[in-house]
Amino acid sequence: MVIPSSAPRYALTRTVVVSFLLLFISFTLLFSYHPPFKTTLSKISPFNNSQAPHPPYTAAIIYLARLSHADELLESLASVNVYLPHRDPWPIILFHTGDFDDTPDQDDFLATLREKIGGASNRSDRDFSDRVEFVKLDWVLPEGIPHTKEELDPVSPSSWPGYHHMCAFYSTKIFFNPRLQDVTYYLRMDTDSLFLEPLCYDPFEVMHTRQRSYGYLGVGNDAPIVTKGLWRFLRDYADSHPEVELRLNASKTWKWPRGSANGDVDLDDVSVSGYYNNFEIVKLEEFRKPEVKEWLYHLIQYPEHQEKVISPIDHRFDL
Ligand SMILES: Nc1nc2c(ncn2[C@@H]2O[C@H](COP(=O)(O)OP(=O)(O)OP(=O)(O)O)[C@@H](O)[C@H]2O)c(=O)[nH]1
Ligand SMILES: [Mg+2]
Predict the structure, then answer these.
(1) Label partner for 302 (CA 20 to 30 A): which of 199, 226, 237, 249?
(2) What stretches pass through the bilayer (predicted)?
(3) Which ligand is nearest to the CA of 16?
(4) Three-state SS string across the chain, please?
(5) Residues enclosing ligand 1, CB less than 6 A?
(6) Which of 75, 166, 169 for mutating ligand 1's site (highest number of atoms within 8 Å of CB)?
(7) Is the pTM of this model over 0.85?
(8) What are the structural domains, with CATH classification, of the chain?
(9) What is the 284 CA–ligand 1 centroid distance (Å)?
């Protein structure tokens, strides 16, 4: 979700800057135990999936899809079909917000996919298109914010509200989505994400055997304009959660901005690092741990719902 500073896509208001805030604390909390792995096309032996027993985990490849981007989605799926090795034919879940409600639209899409990839998958007996599922999401704006563009004045009016919903989905809601309840790992692809050459290992298998929580492609910065208020939010969170502050301060990778303690810098001008997550692999249970849930809950509350009575954690993500 990193938006390169030079990119014109200044998309977020403070409400939904949550897109990759995960990196701040959730990742620091997680990685002190299980460091992430960075995807490369390094020369690990190719995984041989013939006759393999069922693994002790489940996985899914997920997309957030829309009809307007069907062509690039088809390209992306075709690249998954050809280049992504797997020991099991995991489902491919296309989350959508209504575009694929109608069965004819789903059938048309799958027929085009079959036409494009030329029949059965080259890596499994199961037809690739049979692995595709459509899962509807109901996106609702938070209660405490204005719901019109005019009143809200988002950073990028042209992408309101879809992009903002997307950010909220991938940064918090996804970990509690019912369809993923029994899924151990998901691999996120964006509709414009592509495998360009064969991956020589099964990423889920690597996550499992190396006990990783998160796999990613790179690290970058979001433009400060989309992260206004974020450092202060973090500061407040750390102040009210001493155990988190301790963990952050002990981290080798985490750093508070220089000069922030004595007010020498305007924190709103300091960019924030984040994982580039057009491709990412997530071990879901790690993001459902109480301390991460607590953090995520604060993210979705801030700042509009601060006065709201805090409910027990387990009921906060009935999504
Ligand atoms: N259904 C739906 N999907 C969306 C919407 N906005 C974005 N998406 C999808 O969500 C995924 C992430 O959106 P991107 O536009 O790639 O956002 P990003 O990853 O922050 O931006 P880049 O770093 O430029 O790729 C993509 O698969 C999009 O197709 C939306 O309004 N509706
Ligand atoms: Mg993207």
Answers:
(1) 249
(2) 12-33
(3) 1
(4) CCCCCCCCCCCCCHHHHHHHHHHCCHHHHHHCCCCCEECCCCCCCCCCCCCCCCCCCCEEEEEECCHHHHHHHHHHHHHHHHHCCCCCCCCEEEEECCCCCCHHHHHHHHHHHHHHHCCCCCCCCCCHHHHEEEEECCCCCCCCCCCCHHHHCCCCHHHCCHHHHHHHHHHCHHHHCHHHCCCCEEEEECCCCCCCCCCCCCHHHHHHHCCCCEEEEEEEEECHHHCCCHHHHHHHHHHHCHHHHHHHHHCCCCCCCCCCCCCCCCHHHCCEEEEEEEEEEEEHHHHHCHHHHHHHHHHHHCCCCCCCCCCCHHHCCCC
(5) 1, 9, 63-64, 66, 69, 96-97, 162-163, 166, 190-191, 278
(6) 166
(7) no
(8) 14-315 (3.90.550.10)
(9) 21
